[in-house]
Amino acid sequence: MRCCCWRTRRRCARVGPSAWRSTGSSFVSVVMRVAFAVPFFGPGLTNGSEHLAYHLARRLVELGAAVDVYTTCTARARAVAPFALRWPADFPAAPEVSAGIRIRRFPVTFAMPAALARLASTLIAARWRAEERRYGVVLKGSAALETYYARRARSRPAWYDQVFLAGLGPWSAPLRRELELRLPDYDVVVTGFVPFALPGQVIRLTRRLGKPAALLPLFHPEDLFHHHRTFYEMFAEASAVLALTGYSAGLFRRLAPASRPIELGAGVEAEAYSRADISGARFRARYGLGDDDLVLFVGRKEPGKRYDLAVAAVERLARPGTTLVMVGEDVDRAPLRSARTRHLGKIPLEDLRDAYDACRVLLAPSEHESFGMVLLEAWMREKPVIGNGRCRPLASLIDEGRDGFVSWTADDMAERLRLLLDQPELARQMGQRGRQKVLRQYTWEVVGRKLFDILGELAAPHAGRA
Prior knowledge:
alpha/beta, Rossmann fold, 15% strand
């Protein structure tokens, strides 16, 4: 007999994980209500975390879930000290709807005063230097790096974590009050991201309310900012930890043995990157790039993205007619002293897709990533990729020698570039394999369905509660 509780939102004991309503299903039951609580959210925000959260929420709506997002009024937090952020009101504190997602924004009501932020940052930096004197230094890329960072994190007195989170934020009293009032109405909660303070607040609240919560940490294992004992404890307290790669899922188990990591992945809009009107020739003409062989870098121009490795690799390649094209916001404003490099800054999304079509190879040298969205986008245009082996989540996406290469130094990147540029048939085959992998595993349709099923499983044991 069909369950009729979907009409009144009253829950009954017959509801199981397969009973949540999904578009295209012949069986209609309860509409799964999902709350997202994240520091930033919006269709126009382009950083990886916001992009991922928006597309996951949108796909859940398309599958029939009711999704409400609770977030701040901030589009981008600004640093006031090395370990402290300011959260400006970039958006009004008013309800809005985007692609069926209901969004509620709240102002941040506490941020460390600048003088206190500088003092707190000085104390934390001093502690980190003391840890280096005690435990030594492990180089980036070492297999021992994550164990080393975890040892340091667990040795820290708890008040360092508290000061760290107080500085980073966000802390919003009205957001907290609204969550306390509204979360009992939801079947399941999704929250993120590390290293911000919000997910810890939400996980503690959901545990008190008896609500399941899926944590989307977007954890950077090579970044000391992400290694704090309070985060490891949060991994264990969440109902599930949504890992973007199998490598990250294994890492969460090591850092927090009581955690329940599930590999989710991330996606790309397959149709958008398959359109017939995408044109590399148009990109070359628009930006005056002629007939050069283009090596593409996509990402913010800042030290953590290691664009310096990309510049050095193309310089050492010293191949006539080869140009490194960099696309992304100029964060550090450092001058580029390379005649072989063109930095275009932020460009429209249509031009970015054209850039993938125009390039011969994508170079992804970043050291700090939880995934590697740029790899998927390049593969969708059948381009081979070269990733930095020091970023293990990103490197784990690459099938070495099949759809790309993993490199550790600028010299190694230069040699891999030479191979791919000199052997276009090899590059073409690798790019085609990459596209096939994306279509199998990494479209928003695939990833969204997986998340819908994960959340349904988490919510099912709670569905019979009044």
